[in-house]
Each structure stands twice: as structure tokens, then as C-alpha cells.
Amino acid sequence: MDIVKLVIWDLDDTFWSGTLSEEEITPIQFNIDLVKELVERGIMNSISSKNNQYEAKKKLQELGVWDYFIFPRINWQPKGKSVNSIIELAQLRPQNVLFLDDNHLNLKEVKFYNDAVWVEDPNFIFKITDHDAFIGKEDKEHSRLHYYRILERKNQERTNYSDNKEFLQTSGIQLAFISEVLSGKGRIFELIQRTNQINYTKKRIAEHELDELLENTDYECKMIRVKDRFGEYGVVGFYALQLSTNRLEHFLFSCRAMNIGLEQFVYAHLSYPEIIRVGAVTAELTKEPKPNWITVSEDWNQIIDEDNETKPIRLLLKGACDLNQMLHYLNYKNLNLQSEFNFVNVNNHPVPQAHSFILLQSGIVSDTTKSYLIDKLPFWDESIFSTKVFEQEYDVLVYSLLLDYTMDLYNSKRTNVLVPYESYSDFINETKEQFVSRCKRHGFIGMDEEFYDDFKSDFTFQGQIIPEDLRNNLESLRSQISKPIIFINGAEIRSPKNNVSEFGKAQDRHRILNKVLDDFCAEHDNAFLLDVRKFVNDEGINHSIRHYKRHVYEEMAQELIRIVGEISKVEYKRDEFRFKLKKISKILYENAKDIFFKLKRVLLAK
């Protein structure tokens, strides 16, 4: 039996007792503990459940276990396709996956779509702990879960690109060849024994044989370490090239490195040596050139003690396409990038997650109201109110306000929530026929005559955010966030004439809101401005006032790096001052304590 690397759980009457949509469920503590224990064994967990995602996520958060699941699929779709989607996203073989469900029809459906998946009913759950297939590998630091979190972020952002190569071009993939293989012998042995999908020779060897191989001077042995702008993946590959025959004895990569062209890059880098492939692999090797989206880093080719290395600056990027386009030029800096960009939902509609009213309402709108609006609005989804901004697990927040500059606001009569939708009065100026025709042209799902009538009836047009409200929103953000914030403003040139609805309006509006942002940043410490007015002129505009030419995004990225550098210098000086103050306080305390005891001895002697 194959080892299990992923367990996919049904929720109702499997992970917990009862049906969430019909009654109050009863948690099963054994299952909660088991999910956490599996993660500590390096075995991942996911969810395939027919439920309302918002309600299920809320319940799992209450149980303190939501963050232990990867690629959850909580919807009303058939489970066979849902399970296959999870396996594909996790980049695993079906043979290494267990699916748990109380409904025998669901189990049969999953087997029908992929016979290699192992399926069981809930009675099997209590056998997992001691089963040989679930031994795993100790991972108390949850490093494997961390790698999958990176993969989740990558997959979410990939939806913003029509072409996977374009996405890879902006990912900033770097690899290092590590020659000091003895220090990573344990990791190499693990890769040899466990990898299948990108293991070309599939030669399983014992530990003593690996020792002999690594010490054999006829073999060039190197580990391959990879990182990109989403994070570090660690050692994900190994090769052993026999020099006398120019033949690859071992050539293998972890599934963490799948679908980025790494195996082809390394094969081309080695000048296409002989290799005898054994069994199936996910990517064939060719005599084609190296993928040009991967670079070799010469200053990153040692195993680094993470406790002693200089930690990168953590940036959380929140905004629209301007920030997204800058990412390619931020790749090779000492930055740890997290992002919260607008994205396209399952209805093929952009979700306006970065508007300041959405951000601020995320913490005050009730769960019932959120659920009502998410179900009602096809241009929203369950992630609309999800944000890490207020958790402050970053060093600097970079926030683009372009959506505030652009989008109209509608007030929900039932909930009094402000909803960003469309721009420059486009929706209210359209007839029903024009609206439906436009939505069909863009492929928007659920945006039909019924939605048009419903939205017109239940929502009141407010227009774009007024300067006073923008100022109040900025003040509210500043009061809730202690970390430095770098704001990105809007250009102040006329839009191209093909944008008829906003032509002549956007420039004036940008000037008004830029003045609000200028004044705010001037009056507040730890508020900084990345001023696009320095870089955007008539030649820098692409097809609207919000979309720039490539060289503009590069210049903006360089300016962002400069501002972050200035902030980090100030923070370093503050940390240095705090350290010195702490040291002085300790010396004063020790001296005071010494004086006290000396005085006490003198008094007792008398």
C-alpha cells in the first residue's frame, strides 16, 4: 500500500456529527486532534464537502482547525471532480490520497473519476493513527504545511494571468546548486525514497549506498534549492551525474517544484547528459533551451542557518493591477512578499477586495450580513472580506487606493453595507438590455435580467467615495495598524479617448483624492507615499489612467524598494536604541540590586 500524503475529509457526519446546513453540529475532538497530528507527521489535510463555504469556514475557525486544511473545496459540486481538483492543486499522485466520506455514493463517485484514490467511510478514521500508511515524517515546525500555503497563494494569483508562462515570468524563480551534499544527506535520502512524479531514474538505494555515492569522485552530486517571490521551498531536487560516462544516475525533484520547468532547466544546464527514464513522469525532458523564467543564484548556494541569516523584510501588498504588475521587478530583492490582490471569482467577475470600505467593513459587518451579501452578489465570493491586514504579520503594508479612486458605491437597503461596483456611473446609465449584453460579452455568470432588477431594487447608488470619507477611512486604518503603510496614489493625466465614460473625469478626480492622500501622509508618522505622478506621463499610459507601460511599473518598483529601505533603516535604529536601553536598564537593575544587598548586610551587621 502506498504511503498517504493527503487526507481529504467530508464534513457532515464524517469530520463532525450532524449536518451544518440543517442543525447545530457536534464536534468530534478525536478528528480535530487527528488533523493536527497528521500535519505534525507531514501529512496534509483537505476538505471536499457539499456545504456553504462561509458557514463551514466559520465553524472550522471556531474549532481552531481551519488553518490546518489546504485547498478546501466546499461547494455544491460533484465530489468526484472536487477531489480530483484538490489532488491536482496539491500536485500529488492519487495513490497517495485518502478520501473519507459517510455517503457510499460519494465514495463510489470518487473512485469512478479516479480509481487510484483510496476511499473509506468514517469507521476507518480510528485506524489511521497506527496504520503503516500514515507514519509520515516528523514535522513539528509544520514546514510542509508552510510550503502548501505558498502553493495556495501561487494558485490564487495564477488566476490573474491568461497564460501560465506569463505567470512564471513574473514569479522570480531562483535556484541554487548546493555542492556540500553531506550536510543534506538526510534530505537527499528522503527525496530518493519518496519522490515518484518527477523522479526520472527511480533508483531506491540504502543509506550506506548513498554514503558511497556522495563520496565517489566519479560522480558530481548536487542538491537543488529553490525560492521565488512567494517564498522559499528549501531543497527540492538532487542529481548524481557520473562524469566518466556523462550519465545521470539520479535525477529527481519534489512535487513542490512541479510545473515550473525546473527539471528542464537543470537538464539543459547540465548540457543534456544521458538519462534512462524509468516509469512515468509528469514532464518529459527535451533538448530545448533552459526556461528563461528561472535564474541561478550564485550567492545562495549554501545551506543557511535560518536563525542567523538576515531576515528579509516582510511586505503585504494589497491593491489592484498596479501592484500586481510591479511584482516582477521586486523579485530579486531581500523582500518576503505576501499579496492580497483583486481576483476573478468563479463567476468570471473581478472581486473588489482592495476597496477601503470593504477592508474596514470586514471587521464590523456581522457574519449573517456577510453571508447574505455573498450569496446575493455574483461579483463577490467568500474571500471578499478575507484579509491579513489587521493581523499585522508583516513589516510594511503597501496599499494601492486605485479602487477608491475609481469604483462607484451602492448602499444595501437591507444591510446598510456599502458595496463597490462598476465605475463612473456605468451601471445606472445602462438599460437592462445594454447591461445584459455587456455581461454576456465579458462572460459574467449570474449577471442577467433578474440580477439587474434585483440590484436596482435593493441597492441605492451613492457614487464614488467622497474626499471626506476617504480621509476618515485612512484615519481609521492608521488607528488600527501600527506598522508603516506605503500608499500608492493615482496618475494625474487625461485618460485615452477610448474610455468614453471616464474621459476628462478621472484626471480631476485623481487630483482631488491625491490631495487628500498628500495631506494625510504629511500629517502622520509611519505613513508614506509612492507617488506615481513622478513616473506617469502621456507616454507612460497604456490604455487608461490606471494602466501603465512596463517601464513605469519598473520605476515604481524601484521607488518602493527605496522607501522600504528608508523605513528599514529607521526601524533598525529604533531596534538598536531599544536594545541599548534594555542593556542599560539591566545594568542599572543589577547595580541597584547589588547596592540593596550591600546596604541590607550593613544594616543587619548593626
Automatic annotation (TrEMBL):
InterPro entries: HAD-like_sf, HAD_sf, HAD_SF_ppase_IIIC
Database matches in Gene3D superfamilies: HAD superfamily/HAD-like
Full protein name: HAD-IIIC family phosphatase
Signal sequence extent: none
